[in-house]
Amino acid sequence: MRKELKQWARDKMRESRPSPVSVTLVYVLITGAMQLIVPLVSVALVGFSVLSYWLTKGYELSQIILYYLGAGGATALGFANILVGLLIEVISFGYISYCLLLLRDRARGTSNLSDGLGMAGKVILMRLITGTFIFLWSLLLVIPGIVAFYRYRMAPYILLDNPDCGVLESIRASKALMKGHKAELFVFDLSFLNWALLYAVPFLVAEILERAGIPALGGVVVTWLGAGLVSLWVTPFVGVSQAAYYSNLTGGGYRIADYGPGDTRDRHWDN
Question: What is the pTM of this model?
Answer without folding.
Answer: 0.82
